[in-house]
Amino acid sequence: MILCASVLPFLGVIVEQKKKTMPAVQLVLRDAIKTNNADMNNVSTIFRGVAILQTLAEKNTEDIKRSEFGMIIRDLGSLWETAIKVTAIKELLDCFPDEPWSAINGKVQVTPEICEKYDKLIQKAYSFGIKDCYQWKHIVDGKRATQLVGLKPGPHVSELLKVQMTWQLENPEGTKEECEKAIEEYWSNKNLL
């Protein structure tokens, strides 16, 4: 988290190097800090979630859908809690730019609402029972999903698996048969459009 916080000023900054655009944070991590690939990937994953998590935290936690939040957690993997905390840090820095954040014994005056909304977001994942959903297996695999809709395995598999996992997150007590039916309905409705 310290590494992420130290490179937060580079969040969203894009640079061009050798006619390729890339996030500036990758350049800083690779060339200035000389960190390893694992740390660069972790920071990139966390930064990918900042804007999404900030938007999610702005919603009233009662309005957050289990599947929406679960798919974000699945995207961020085991770093989802760290990403929420880094997002809170970013918002605190944005809202209170004149505070003496680097003062060792200095007292920083901030409103608790910012920290509370991100804490509520973490609590919501626990109350939804999705804190480890990034590890969940699909109850209907890609091969079976394509069989259900009459396709050969190919580019549609990822779309069907996303639909399947969204359904699985929305229906925690759902059965494999119910999920298969939902996939079939999704595909038939998609083809009607």
From TrEMBL:
One of its GO terms (biological process) is tRNA 3'-terminal CCA addition. Signal peptide: none annotated. GO terms for molecular function: ATP:3'-cytidine-cytidine-tRNA adenylyltransferase activity; CC tRNA cytidylyltransferase activity; RNA binding. Keywords: RNA-binding, Transferase. This is CCA tRNA nucleotidyltransferase, mitochondrial. It comes from Rhizopus stolonifer (Rhizopus nigricans).
